[in-house]
């Protein structure tokens, strides 16, 4: 017992059982707090991997989920000549991610880029509308699509948003129209009817036949 300002102050010590109970409560609260933080931090990753199916993922999509799919595709790239690995993840309006990686062959001109692999997979599944694509490369730098990929993407996804990702998880974004201004597209061919095309083709064959006879 201690005396302070004429009043008695009683110092009551906790029993071992009470102390143990208090510690358990604090530990439980701390565990719950950590679990909540963990769920917030990895909810996209959990959604992504729990719904994985082949190269397509039906998830509550975010840019990070797309990036994750692109990186996973990049790891599977077939690039025995350049050793430059690229991965792409394309989001359709139906909410599916189609991933792709570059594939190199010994006849270099037949090599196909990651962006076109992802797009062609999506088209073969019946997709016709697309929202965004994330592209990442083993160099760790921002890797823009090549000219051929820009043309193909413009043809099939003229409103596409292209995200370039670097090794630090930073992004640059462009519309496909910004990457390929004044592009050639279907509208440049709209003035040609099927009859005109067939007629032009016949005329070309006739000219070729005439040259051979001469």
Task: Give a short synopsis of this structure.
The protein has six helices and nine strands, in the order ββαββαββαβαββαα.
Provide a descriptive summary of the structure in words:
- There is one protein chain.
- The chain is an alpha+beta fold.
- It has a domain at 47-182: Cytidine Deaminase, domain 2 (3-Layer(aba) Sandwich), CATH 3.40.140.
- Helix content is 43%, strand content 20%.
- It is built from six helices and nine strands, in the order E-E-H-E-E-H-E-E-H-E-H-E-E-H-H.
- The chain has a seven-stranded mixed beta sheet with strand order 3-4-6-5-7-8-9. It has a two-stranded antiparallel ribbon with strand order 1-2.
- A hairpin with a 5-residue loop joins strand 8 (161-165) and strand 9 (171-175).
Question: What's the layout of helices and strands?
Answer:
Blueprint: E1 2-4, E2 7-9, H1 16-50, E3 52-53, E4 56-58, H2 63-74, E5 86-92, E6 96-101, H3 114-124, E7 130-137, H4 147-156, E8 161-165, E9 171-175, H5 176-179, H6 194-213
Parallel strand pairs: 7-8
Antiparallel strand pairs: 1-2, 3-4, 4-6, 5-6, 5-7, 8-9
């Amino acid at each position: 017992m201690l005396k302070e300002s004429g009043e008695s102050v009683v110092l009551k010590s906790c029993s071992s059982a009470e102390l143990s109970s208090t510690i358990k409560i604090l530990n439980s609260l701390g565990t719950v707090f950590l679990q909540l933080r963990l769920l917030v931090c990895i909810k996209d990753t959990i959604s992504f991997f729990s719904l994985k199916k082949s190269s397509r993922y039906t998830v509550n999509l975010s840019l990070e989920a797309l990036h994750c799919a692109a990186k996973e595709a990049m790891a599977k790239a077939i690039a025995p000549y350049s050793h430059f690995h690229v991965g792409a993840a394309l989001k359709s309006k139906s909410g599916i991610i189609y991933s792709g990686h570059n594939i190199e062959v010994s006849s270099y001109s037949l090599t196909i880029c990651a962006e076109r692999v992802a797009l062609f997979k999506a088209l073969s599944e019946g997709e016709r509308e697309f929202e965004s694509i994330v592209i990442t490369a083993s160099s760790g730098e921002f890797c823009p699509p090549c000219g051929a990929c820009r043309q193909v993407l413009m043809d099939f996804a003229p409103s596409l948003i292209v995200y370039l990702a670097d090794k630090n998880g930073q992004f640059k974004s462009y519309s496909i129209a910004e990457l390929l201004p004044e592009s050639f597209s279907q509208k440049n061919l709209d003035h040609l009817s099927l009859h005109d095309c067939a007629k032009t083709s016949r005329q070309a064959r006739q000219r070729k036949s005439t040259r051979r006879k001469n």
